[in-house]
Protein: Vanillate O-demethylase oxidoreductase
Amino acid sequence: MSETLLKVVVRKRESHTDGVIALELESLDGEMLPAFQAGAHIDLHLGEELIRQYSLCGDPADTSVYRLGILKDPNSRGGSVAAHLNLLEGTELTISMPRNHFPLMVGAKRSILIGGGIGITPMMSMAYSLMADNQPFELHYCGRSRETSGFLNDLASCSFTKHVDMHFDSEDQRLDLEAALKGADADTHLYVCGPNGFMDWVIGSAKELGVPDTNVHKEFFNVEVKTGGASFEVFAEKSGITVQVGENESIADALKAAGVKVQVSCEQGTCGTCLCDVIEGIPEHRDVYLTDEEKEDNDQITVCCSRSLSPRLVLDI
Structure:
């Protein structure tokens, strides 16, 4: 079944810093957009085979627009640069339906939201939902400085302002994780999104402080992908095609070269767009999308970055 795509227009664009823009997207016909849950993201179709995911940061109760923030990444593979250059007010574009791989846990007695840099965006939609449901939470926004941090005005004037604590390195106000996680118990859930080093620090510290792994929820927006490895064979069962995946080639690229339609997006194993069922063989998981438990099952693989520990994989594609 083909994916449902939406046609939208950029209703509003704001430059929050030299490197951060905020966009409001509305439907071309002025109708309400599909509902979304806190933590959800959408795919932006920015060019031929250039698809990137961005978290929705608006209030899930308001579907008149989708609001999101985009950091112009100096190491961009094309997506954020294209967005900054081309997504001007009045620009029409195609987006996906909202998808959520980073949901809030229903019924948690306490939620701790930690956003580093542009990782604040999914935390904002979570805060809106928690506030509307009258659920206890704290939101910590960490950045290098106010000058490089977006959404400051939004956070200072929104419905959940009193729940927000800001931490800027330039002001010597770094987040004290031990204090932030004090009193965390089995009914406390931690959510974190941000740069890799920041994520590692928060997740590692939470583990050391006794927060159960199952209570730590994370979303990566950029990862270092391990590349290369021994060649192996892949049989695409639905397509009836066998390919040899080269030492420095991805499964997705090998399949596409043989005419098998493969949908990819992040190309880093973060979004799950290319997730495929494994019928036979043992994957070498290199993604951050699947949980450790899901990886142990070895029945799914992200074909954009993962490889094989067995000489042959049979995939349901």
